[in-house]
Automatic annotation (TrEMBL):
Organism of provenance: Brevibacterium celere
Record domain Glucose-6-phosphate dehydrogenase NAD-binding: where: 8-171
One MF annotation (Gene Ontology) recorded for this entry: NADP binding
Origin organism lineage: Bacteria, Bacillati, Actinomycetota, Actinomycetes, Micrococcales
One of the protein's GO biological processes: pentose-phosphate shunt, oxidative branch
InterPro entries, per the entry: G6P_DH (IPR001282), G6P_DH_C (IPR022675), G6P_DH_NAD-bd (IPR022674), NAD(P)-bd_dom_sf (IPR036291)
UniProt keyword annotation of NADP present: yes
Any Pfam family hit: G6PD_N
Protein name in UniProt: Glucose-6-phosphate 1-dehydrogenase
Length: 451
């Protein structure tokens, strides 16, 4: 696919655009000084402040250079209703060159817009970038995928999950496939358990309209943590490309099910009560403006899964995410089994602690816990943590996603069937909530989650 010339953000006045997309674009263009992209912001309402929104966002990440200046000088704003045929025809008609329509919109609006696009003659090399969530359940995800596939080929659909652009994920790929010492150990013979944890200090942040009907399971497990899991547990690809990686990720998700027979033991569901997080007082979740307590929305979820394949069967994989958590962890943790042979001369009759590999999600830090010394060492057994010391990544997670989009390279895009599998697994968790197998537990804001 050819590189993108026109980036059209649909839903340009939304929070996602100013908070994440534009700063991400800034970090990318500051690095790609030779890129010339035409940025068009579009939304249903008029907006006189688009140019200053773009400038402020670029400024917030200190982005400068010729590629950044080009965008600042040429960016335009178009008022357009994406669900109206004439509006979309006019918008597309005004563009010359390979175009990406970035749908920073709720899935219901995206679907209506895709329906409208089906009636138009679309330009060649049109790329559709679709923000999560892809649909609101398994069936609507299928429907949305079908609508998109009628317009362009799968290679021209980029389903965005910015967690796939986070340092932990990129580091894990490099550590696995550019070294000899890790990949042979990543299987049920050597791995005791895996955890993928993304807890946050943030509470609702005034997002009740989105969050209350959504909850932690749909918000964080459905795409982010499951896609990360699929990518990190995939079999080694023969090539690093848009065919192999998405296919291997989907293969893992297809093999995933809730651990054991009793969801009440494999899933924990929680909701925060009033408390203090990092010096900030948070009210009870149910007392937040716009929240309907009857929704029973969970602000915390932890689920243990099994990836039932030859390589991973029997290894518990725990995904966890909670809001209003004190001292939050945001990491991928691979816990290895103890050595197969026990030496009584080692402390604790040879029961040495297991090795643990930790990759921090948003920082470029990898930690490996090892045992050293032992019976003949005057210090005895020493637990050490080897830690990487690399520079912070130049691109934000959204910058990384946008690089794939602007290069027309969907390697790190979520493939349609993988998005559907995310909803299948999420549906099984939500069914267990609905049938009463998993009680909603309360935890104090600022605590480490439900006990
Ligand atoms: O830390 P980041 O990059 O903002 O990602 C976490 C966020 O990811 C978003 O997709 C979720 O909707 C938010 O609830 C969450 O806070």
């Amino acid at each position: 696919m050819s590189a993108i010339t026109n980036l059209v953000i649909l839903g340009a006045t939304g929070d996602l655009t100013s908070r994440l997309l534009l700063p991400g674009l800034g970090t990318l263009l500051a690095q790609r000084t030779d890129r010339r992209v035409t940025l068009i912001g579009s939304s249903q309402t008029a907006d006189d402040s688009w140019s200053s929104t773009v400038a402020e966002a670029f400024d917030s990440v200190g982005a400068d250079g010729p590629a950044v200046d080009h965008v600042l000088e040429t960016t335009t704003y178009v008022q357009c209703d994406v669900t109206k045929k004439d509006d979309m025809a006019e918008l597309l008609g005004s563009l010359d060159g390979a175009t990406c329509l970035y749908f920073a919109l709720p899935p219901s609006v995206t679907m209506k817009s895709l329906d409208v696009l089906a009636e138009l003659d679309l330009p060649q090399d049109l790329l559709l970038a679709l923000e999560k969530p892809i649909g609101t359940d398994f069936e609507s995800a299928q429907e949305l995928n079908l609508l998109a596939s009628r317009l362009v080929s799968e290679q021209h659909i980029f389903r965005v999950d910015h967690f796939l652009g986070m340092p932990a994920v990129l580091n894990f790929l490099g550590m696995r496939f550019a070294n000899r010492i890790l990949e042979p150990l990543l299987n049920r013979d050597n791995v005791e358990s895996i955890e993928i944890v993304f807890d946050e200090t943030l509470g609702l942040e005034g997002r009740a309209g989105f969050y209350d009907p959504t909850g932690a399971t749909r918000d964080m497990i459905q795409s982010h943590l499951l896609q990360v899991m699929g990518l990190m547990m995939m079999d080694p690809p023969a090539r690093f490309d848009h065919v192999e990686l998405p296919a291997l990720t989907a293969h893992i998700l297809r093999a995933t099910r809730i651990w054991g027979d009793d969801p009440g033991r494999s899933i924990v569901r929680g909701r925060y009560t009033a408390g203090t997080v990092g010096g900030v007082d948070l009210p009870d979740y149910t007392a937040e403006e716009g929240v309907d307590p009857d929704n029973g929305t969970e602000t915390f979820v932890q689920v243990t899964l099994e990836v039932d394949t030859w390589r991973w069967s029997g290894v518990p994989v725990t995904l966890r995410s909670g809001k209003a958590i004190g001292n939050p962890r945001q990491e991928i943790v691979v816990r290895f089994r103890q050595p197969p042979h026990i030496y009584p001369q080692f402390p604790n009759d040879g029961n040495v602690p297991e090795n643990v590999l930790r990759l921090e999600f948003e920082q470029d830090q990898v930690l490996l816990e090892l045992n050293m010394g032992g019976p003949f060492d005057s210090r005895g057994m020493t637990r050490v943590t080897a830690q990487t010391d690399t520079a912070a990544p130049e691109l934000s997670a959204y910058g990384s996603v946008l690089r794939g989009i602007l290069d027309g390279d969907p390697t790190m895009s979520v493939r349609g069937d993988a998005a559907e599998e995310g909803w299948r697994i999420t549906g099984e968790i939500l069914d267990a909530f609905a049938d009463g197998s998993v009680p909603l537990r309360e935890y104090e804001a600022g605590s480490s989650g439900p006990v």
